[in-house]
Recover the amino acids of this structure.
């Protein structure tokens, strides 16, 4: 299969999209941007390639649908979950190794003898709990290893510490985890897709020679071994100076977001993108070509990081903010447009006895008011209006935006928000990549792909050079 | 843990700006150095000194009275280019000037408080008089109020009515001429210690006219493809003599004649403009720019355009010290009336519809693909209404506008990554639109 790769390197997350030559999405991947752009790009691409293999697997399963006991879709889903479980278990082993390394490097500690077996016990508990996370019932709250491992480790460490009757503290156990997790996360592991998928398949089907079992394994074999040929690359996203792409393969994220949004919602004329550190108001024509845009300058209050900071202040997960705010009975007026002052205002309001939900409603409104001002500067909101970027996953942000559009513009403006809106930039980049390919000038290979293919380790967390 | 080398994006070789100077520029450099030398010994030589501003500057009047002009705005922008403005601004903020005050003012005050050393390294003389000849910028009044306090010298003010209705009425003109006769000239005569010779003023104005003709020819050369000049980044060098102490001098006439010949030579050779990296690459985009440049990162800013093949074919900033390409020339036959017309007609004295109309005419005349507004934090005279102008211009011309924000000389307000992101996005947008248009 030939694919075109689009990568959107955001300040918080890095996204990759693979398109086939018919411009159909065959795979997507997302990862934390960390402090290393090359690793982030490589991880997102790797994940998208894996997803593309699952697309191939689904197509292979469909071809053998009559022989399968379950539907092709269900089989693919089950295999996918089993694959994730196998990967998670591999990563737990890597984490364990790294933690042992950390323990060895800590020459000054006296209780290494107690810590090492305790850590083993914690990880064993995580391994035995792992299957529940991937049983298809949607128990896990994140797809990032770091989030899953942190949650699992904390709860198992609590049990182990309690069981040690004071011999080991919870903090001692989590301290080692904190030191190890970053290295595990920033290390690019080239995983053998075929080997993991075969292991996953064995979880689902006994090799009993049944027709259904044979069909499943054949599909797995075919998906694992068919070549995927990456024929064009386009990168976009912030920090374009250090984006690990050759210059001719770098597209402005404004153009990419506009185009991606227009591709998913062809009626789009105005796009609002709120990412980790910037807000963009973009106008596009009937072909998705940008006609005008405005961005926040200098100050990133009101962007994704603002919400992240507020979540930290409240000791909540970022994804919990929106749903909590939806429970507001009133909207507390929040004046601060500075992230840090908004945090102070939040604490003050809490001190005055305001409900968390009501304050959060006010914070969401304050963010969206900033976005409305930017939209007005870019030429206003035209029908249809598409909301993209990480913040559009927040249901309260979408609700407040809907209200503000209705208050300030004509009635009946369609507001589009898609579960995959975070991928719009990468999608736009990939579409430009297909253009390049069709024009006979596909961009050359970015170095992170060369390195990943050469299998060299990229394990640095060093900041990019100026 | 191993360290990977981050990917390097190939960049054109950085050529020192010094390397890319042509003869006219070297000549200008010498003129300016000589002027600052004269200023350094002004007190010993018994020369009188007037401080004044670029918009509405009455250079011929000062020269006719043998006074030496000092332009605090130009000193501030020079400090910005020489990376001194940050410290000067801090100095002024220590004295109590708020973060929101115009950074030209703070830079000037900071420079004054740090010994008043000018751009060429020589000390600037104190003023004998402050000539406030343009009042369209309210900050100018406050600026000279501060300098008056510092130097204990007289201020003479010429109140210039705003062209709110879009034209100069005979009453407005008479009002300015009356002030010149009754207040400004007597005050300058007193400070200079001599009477004004109107014939001498006319001679100076005759030379102004000649230099203005040549300057307009230089601006209009941008109608060629490729344009032989950059009318914004390069343009700020071209306005150097005529906007500062030299309008009306033979030096200025010689400089503009020389510049015009150089530019005509470039047209013959089919060359684009000179950039900080030498001759410009192939012209890909032709743009019109509204608003002053940023000075603290001037060359970074310029390269964001020049390296992408974007040439600025016309700009309004290069018209702040005199708008000549719509027909005005200094008239030696009517010395005071022409000075009044000049002050009333400077770019920042035009109302928003006039500014929009002028920009639209540049877009048309110079076949621009787009226009860009650099909105500076310091200057309300420029920035107020710019978003409105952007929309109006897009509607009028059908050409897309871009909007960036920076500042004159406060380095804290130049976000390179942010501005570069916008400029590149804007240029890519122009390219995408061109591709669509031709598809």
């Amino acid at each position: 299969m030939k694919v075109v790769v689009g990568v959107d390197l955001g300040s918080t997350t890095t996204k990759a999209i693979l398109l086939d030559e018919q411009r159909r999405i065959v795979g997507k991947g997302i990862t934390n941007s960390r402090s290393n752009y090359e690793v982030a790009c490589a991880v997102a691409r790797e994940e998208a390639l894996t997803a593309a293999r699952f697309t191939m697997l689904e197509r292979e399963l469909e071809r053998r649908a009559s022989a399968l006991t379950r539907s092709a879709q269900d089989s693919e889903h089950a295999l996918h979950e089993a694959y994730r479980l196998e990967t998670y278990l591999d990563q737990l082993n890597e984490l364990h190794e790294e933690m042992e390394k950390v323990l060895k490097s800590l020459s000054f500690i006296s209780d290494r003898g107690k810590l090492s077996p305790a850590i083993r016990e914690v990880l064993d508990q995580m391994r035995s709990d792992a299957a529940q996370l991937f049983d298809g019932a949607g128990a896990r709250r994140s797809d990032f290893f770091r989030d899953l491992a942190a949650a699992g480790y904390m709860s198992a460490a609590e049990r182990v510490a309690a069981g040690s009757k004071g011999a080991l503290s919870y903090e001692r156990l989590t301290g080692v985890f904190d030191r190890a997790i970053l290295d595990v996360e920033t290390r690019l592991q080239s995983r053998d897709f075929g080997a993991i998928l075969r292991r996953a398949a064995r979880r689902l089907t006994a090799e009993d020679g049944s027709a259904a079992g044979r069909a499943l394994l054949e599909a797995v074999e075919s998906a694992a071994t068919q070549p995927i040929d990456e024929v064009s690359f386009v990168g976009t996203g912030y920090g374009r100076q250090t984006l690990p792409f050759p210059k001719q393969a770098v597209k402005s994220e404004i153009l990419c977001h506009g185009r991606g949004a227009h591709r998913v919602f062809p009626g789009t004329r105005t796009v609002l993108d709120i990412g980790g550190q910037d807000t963009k108001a973009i106008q596009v024509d009937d072909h998705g070509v940008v006609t005008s845009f405005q961005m926040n300058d200098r100050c990133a209050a009101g962007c994704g990081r603002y919400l992240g900071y507020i979540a930290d202040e409240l000791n909540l997960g970022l994804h919990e903010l929106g749903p909590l705010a939806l429970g507001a009975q009133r909207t507390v007026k929040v004046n601060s447009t500075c992230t840090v002052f908004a945090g102070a205002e939040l604490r003050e309001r809490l001190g005055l006895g305001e409900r968390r939900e009501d304050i959060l409603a006010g914070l969401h409104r304050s963010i969206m008011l900033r976005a409305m001002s930017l939209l007005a500067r870019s030429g206003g909101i035209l029908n249809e209006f598409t909301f993209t970027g990480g913040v559009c996953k927040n249901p309260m942000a979408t609700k407040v935006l809907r209200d503000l559009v209705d208050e300030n513009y004509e009635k009946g403006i369609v507001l589009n928000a898609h579960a995959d809106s975070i991928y719009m930039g990468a999608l736009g980049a990939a579409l430009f990549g297909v253009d390049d390919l069709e024009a006979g000038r596909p961009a050359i290979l970015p170095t992170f792909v060369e390195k990943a293919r050469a299998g060299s380790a990229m394990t640095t967390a060093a900041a990019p050079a100026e | 843990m191993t360290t990977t080398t981050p990917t390097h994006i190939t960049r054109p070789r950085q050529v020192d700006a010094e390397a890319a100077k042509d003869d006219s520029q070297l000549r200008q450099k010498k003129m300016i150095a000589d002027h600052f030398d004269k200023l350094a010994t002004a007190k010993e030589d018994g020369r009188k000194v007037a401080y004044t501003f670029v918009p509405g500057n009455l250079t011929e009047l000062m020269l006719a009275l043998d006074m030496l002009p000092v332009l605090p705005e130009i000193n501030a922008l020079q400090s910005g280019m020489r990376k001194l403005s940050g410290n000067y601004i801090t100095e002024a903020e220590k004295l109590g000037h708020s973060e929101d005050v115009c950074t030209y003012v703070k830079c000037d005050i900071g420079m004054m408080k740090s010994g008043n050393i000018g751009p060429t390294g020589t000390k600037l003389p104190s003023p004998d008089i402050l000539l406030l000849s343009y009042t369209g910028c309210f900050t100018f009044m406050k600026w000279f109020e501060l300098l008056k306090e510092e130097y204990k010298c007289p201020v003479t003010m010429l109140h210039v009515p705003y062209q709110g209705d879009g034209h100069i009425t005979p009453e407005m003109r008479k009002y300015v001429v009356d002030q010149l006769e009754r207040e400004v000239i007597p005050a300058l005569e007193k400070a200079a210690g001599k009477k004004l010779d109107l014939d001498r003023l006319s001679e100076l104005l005759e030379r102004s006219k000649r230099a203005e003709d040549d300057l307009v020819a230089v601006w209009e050369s941008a109608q060629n493809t490729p344009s032989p000049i950059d009318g914004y980044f390069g343009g700020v060098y071209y306005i150097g003599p005529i906007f500062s102490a030299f309008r009306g001098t033979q030096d200025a006439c010689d400089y503009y004649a020389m510049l015009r010949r150089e530019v005509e030579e470039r047209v013959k050779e089919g060359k684009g403009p000179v950039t900080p990296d030498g001759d410009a690459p192939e012209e890909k985009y032709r743009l019109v720019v509204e608003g002053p440049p940023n000075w603290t990162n001037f060359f970074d800013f310029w390269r964001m355009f020049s390296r992408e093949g974007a040439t600025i074919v016309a700009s309004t900033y290069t018209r702040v010290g005199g708008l000549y390409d719509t027909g005005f020339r200094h008239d030696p036959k009517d010395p005071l009336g022409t000075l009044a017309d000049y002050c009333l007609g400077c770019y920042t004295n035009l109302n928003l519809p006039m500014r929009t109309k002028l920009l639209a005419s540049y877009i048309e005349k110079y076949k621009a693909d787009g226009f860009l507004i650099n909105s500076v934090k310091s200057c309300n005279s420029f920035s107020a209404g710019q978003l409105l102008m952007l929309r109006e211009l897009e509607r009028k011309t059908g050409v897309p506008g871009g909007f960036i924000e920076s500042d004159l000389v406060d380095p804290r307000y130049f976000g390179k990554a942010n501005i570069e992101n916008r400029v590149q996005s804007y240029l890519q947008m122009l390219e995408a639109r061109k591709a669509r248009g031709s598809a």
Remarks:
- Chain A has 15 helices and nine strands.
- Chain A touches chain B at residues 36-38, 183, 238-247, 251-255, 285, 287, 289-295, 297-298, 377, 379, 446-448, 451, 457-462, 464-465 (CB under 8 Å).
- The CA atoms of residues 278 and 303 of chain A lie 6 Å apart.
- The radius of gyration of chain A is 24 Å.
